[in-house]
Every structure is written in structure tokens, then in C-alpha cells.
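Researcher: We're teaching a course module on how sequence relates to structure. For the next exercise, students receive a sequence and then see the predicted structure as C-alpha cells, so they can try to spot secondary structure elements on their own. Here is the exercise chain.
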Amino acid sequence: MTTATNFSGSVPRGRVCLEAITRPRIVSLATKTTCNFGQNKLEKLQHNIRAETKAKSKLNPAMASRKSIGSDSNQVSPSSTLKEFYQCINDKKLKQLGDYVSANCSIEESTFPTPIQGKQEALRFFEQLISSMGENVKFRVKDVCEGDGRIAAANWHLEWKDTEIPFTRGCSFFHCSKEGEKLVIKKAQIFIESTLKPGGGLVLTLFKIVTTIFDEFPKTTEWFLKSPHVILKWLLKINTMLVETYMNTVLKGYLQLWNFTTWLLSYAFFILSTIRRFFIN
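Model: And here is the predicted structure for the students to work with:
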């Protein structure tokens, strides 16, 4: 009995001991396996999130640029206004050209002594320009750029049947203002290539003479710079008076010379005809 009792009591102790020892190990292994599986899944999920974030970050600038391009294309820009303006001149669409000119437009053209003021005067100028261009002369606009404050600028030259005409290069600056949903030209500055090219040395010498005169007579220089258009008008009047006086004198002398030449030739013809009649008779 004692032996059976000891044997039977040892077995439960062993089982209890085994259960106590093995069960925690099984639980810990299951826990570790579950944790490792969850951790791997979490790492994969985080990796996928990082990849998607990088892809979105790469796509966002492209999408933003596309949106900005789309929004800019829907809006009228100063550069597009400048291109359409010169296209109207090439197509000789004077009525459509008036839609790009504001009522108080001012055009400063380098070959004119005074600016062209007002829409009517501006359209009259462009009408004369279009008629003088003929059928085959066109503006070739290039290097269009924009600045702050709705300003557009471009280099251009004239072409006859796609061939550049010498000494016709120029540059235009357009200051635009918004009227409703469209941009109109408020101010235009046009600079044209000079046909006179005396050379760099002569130009610098003349520039040195002018600056020396300015420095020697500062008060006169200030007065001149404040009102150059008035002085140019007076110079043109003086030039016109001198030219008219000189041309009238030259024309009078030229007519008198032709009258004398005509009289001399007619007299010589009379003498020859008289001599001919004398010998024939």
C-alpha cells in the first residue's frame, strides 16, 4: 500500500510538474510566433505605405504643374496677348486689332518724336503700318517673355516671303491692363534697329562729346532733358524752314538751267535746219 501510494502520488506530481513546465513554453512559443507574424505583417504594411508615399510625392509635382498649366492656359497672359496682337497685324485684321488696344493707349515708337496717344490715333498708326507692309511682309515674333505687372516683351523682325529683311529688327514692350476677362494694351514701347551704322568708334566719340557738353552746361542739360520733345519740334521746324529755303533756291536754279538748255538746243536745231536748207537748195 505504501509503495502503491508513493507511486501513485509521484505520477500526479510529475504530471503537474510537466504541465507547469510545458504549458508556459507552448504559450510562449505561440506568442512568439504570433508576434513575429504580426511584426512581419506590420513591417510589410509600413513598407507599402512608404512606397505609396514616395510615389505620391513624385507624382504631386507633376500633377501640380499640370494643374497650373491647365489653369494658366484658361487665363489670358500678356505673352499670348502680344502674340495675338502681331498675328492680327500679319492677317491685316484691323477691327480685331482694336480689341487689344485700350481707350487711353500710349505708344512710344522710337522713330516718332512724340508718343501716339489714344485708341483712335493708335489704330490710325497701325492702319498705315498694315497698308505699307503690302501683301507679303510679315512680322516674325520670337523670344517672348513676361515680367512683373502684366508686362510682355519680344524680339521681332520683318520678313518678305519667309526671308528676313535687313535692318528691320526690333523689340517691343507691352504694358497690359485687365478689362473684364481680357487683357488690353495700355502702353507700348517699340524700338527699331537703326539703318545708320556709323561704327562703334564714331558712336563712342559722339557720345563723349555729348556727355562733355552736358557736364559743361548742367542747367541747360536739365532743361533739355525735361522737355526733349519741345526741342525736337523746334529743330524739325528749323530744319524744315532751311530745307524749304534751300530746296526752293535749288529748284529755281534747276528750272532756269533747263530753260536755258532747252533754248540752246532749240537754237542749235534752228541753225542746223537753216544750213540744211541752204545746201539742199
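Model: If you want an answer key for the exercise: The chain has seven helices and seven strands. The first helix runs from residue 2 to 74.
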